[in-house]
Write a structure and sequence with these properties.
The protein is an alpha+beta fold and 192 residues long. Helices cover 64% and strands 14% of the residues.
């Protein structure tokens, strides 16, 4: 049995997937040197929102949260960490998906990439601030099972970038409806 040649839509999807995968690889390599600076910026902002007993630092792409506390007369320190690359992958993903989406004009593509990157930055800041606050108020013991941390890390890395891309690109996959088709008439004949 011979498989039929792919139609235009199948080719468009295959081309999109290949281009998106290529862009993820290229942008991951390009992002790698920026990763540590980005983490330092996230850490500084998060640390500014906490008390002096909590420090937030970047070390080799990992964001560390440390809390000093007293047990009797002894001062203790506990630490937790998140892999900065893991939460930042969503930024690379959404920019790659926008870059590969067919039908976007260059100006729209850049605008959507800028909006998506800004949204991802805000989500990353919120994620790191929430983790710093959890460490400040509850310590690191329950951090692994804290629903807010799990939610924000999962959303930031996987779900949110995909939803952003879908919001900006869905109409380019479905086609551009005209006013006539939205009103239920055929655009060429004027009737149904």
């Amino acid at each position: 049995h011979r498989r039929p040649a792919p139609c235009g839509d199948e080719r468009k999807i295959v081309r999109f997937c290949l281009l998106a995968a290529f862009l993820v690889l290229v942008l991951s390599v390009l992002w790698s040197p920026v990763n540590s600076s980005y983490n330092r910026m996230l850490a500084r902002v998060a640390e500014a929102t906490t008390t002096r007993t909590v420090t937030v630092t970047d070390q080799g792409g990992t964001i560390y949260f440390a809390r000093l506390f007293r047990v009797g007369t002894m001062q203790r320190r506990e630490t937790a960490w998140i892999d900065g690359s893991a939460i930042q992958f969503g930024l690379v993903l959404v920019v790659s998906l926008m870059g590969a989406t067919p039908g976007l004009r260059p100006r729209q593509r850049l605008l959507y990439m800028g909006i998506a990157a800004t949204c991802m930055l805000l989500l990353h800041l919120l994620t790191v601030i929430i983790i710093a606050k959890i460490v400040q108020y509850r310590g690191t013991a329950g951090l692994d099972s804290d629903p807010l941390r799990i939610l924000f890390v999962a959303i930031g890395a996987d779900l949110f970038p995909t939803l952003l891309w879908a919001v900006f690109s869905l109409r380019y996959w479905l086609g551009h409806p005209t006013v006539a088709t939205l009103r239920g008439r055929s655009p060429t004949t004027g009737g149904i």
